[in-house]
Amino acid sequence: MSQLPHCETLLLEKQGPALHVTINRPDVRNAMSLQMVAELSTVFAQVENDMSIRAVVIRGAGGHFCAGGDIKDMAGARGQSAADGEADPFYRLNRAFGQMIQQVNESAKVVIAITEGAVMGGGFGLACVSDVAFAGPTSKFGMPETSLGVIPAQIAPFVVERIGLTQARRLALLGLRISAEEACALGIVHQVAASDEHIDKLLDQALERVRLCAPKATAETKALLHRVGHESMGGLLDSAAEKFAAAIRSDEGAEGTMAFMQKREPKWASHSE
User: Cα separation of 90 and 102, whole Å?
Assistant: First the structure.
């Protein structure tokens, strides 16, 4: 891929077909600043069409995933006044985060979240737009916004998509904090690790599966899943059949069939990337 962007709030490391993104503001439990939002957006924009990157792994430094929005940014916005014809500073701050989380949600890459410690507010939302999520035993998840006198404006729709309206109501309206085990039961995360070593093992297993799955077919499948519930079923299935025909005639489709017949791994699974 092209050179990784310079980031002050993120640590970036490419390992094979995976880009590891570590949120690196441990002194504030990785609270999400406007700068972090911008840097995450830049990273996801840069990797979107990079075929050497097939998965993006997001985790936090210092034992926490992300404790939510940065209070300093909130205070800074409070001190600003909207100029004539310009949007309210709080609107701009909140909406910028929503645009970034939508970008992560719709990324063609497999997004894997490793959640530990505080997974609150915006961090909770980020976990809810991952494709695969693992939790460490110290993880605490929550939507505390209502207890702070504000609302989970940008994350609420993604939480509903993740766990359904009835559970999202309970978490959001009561401002609850829940354990890793309950988060797993609700479907926020897929598995809970017993230790750091177990987290690493789960991640390695997930990345191994990413390696074995064709990148273009994976991206098309993710896009198809996102369309469910937003289009008529007949029209969606018509479109899906067209996508299937194109996939089976594609280089990936031909290679996958040939590899299966020859009882070998397909070329995209090569460790040489």
Answer: 18
Q: Does residue 155 contact residue 125 with C-beta atoms inside 8 Å? A: yes
Domain boundaries, the chain: 10-210, 214-269
Q: What is the pTM of this model?
A: 0.94
Chain segment 80-109, per-residue pLDDT in tens: 766 656 778 889 889 999 999 999 999 999
H or E element at residue 64: none
For residue 12, CA distances in Å to 63, 224, 240, 251 come to: 17, 29, 35, 31
Element (H, E) at 242: helix 233-249
3-state secondary structure of 247: helix
Token pair recorded at residue 211: 């390696």
- pLDDT for 86: 76
CATH number for the segment(s) 10-210: 3.90.226.10
Backbone angles phi, psi at 25, to 5 degrees: -135, 60
Task: Convert the pLDDT of each residue in 198-246 to its tens digit.
Answer: 999 999 999 999 999 999 999 999 999 999 999 999 999 999 999 999 9
Say yes or no to pLDDT of 173 above 70. Answer: yes
Q: Are 153 and 92 contacting, i.e. CB atoms less than 8 angstroms apart?
A: no
CA-to-CA distance for 159 and 184, rounded, in angstroms? 14
**Any idea which architecture 214-269 has in CATH?**
Orthogonal Bundle (1.10)
Pairwise CA distance, residues 225 & 222, whole Å: 5
Q: Map residue 93 onto helix, strand or coil.
A: helix
Q: Which two tokens stand for residue 58?
A: 């997001």
Burial of residue 102 (number of CB atoms within 10 Å: 0-12, 13-18, 19+): middle
Amino acid type, 273: E
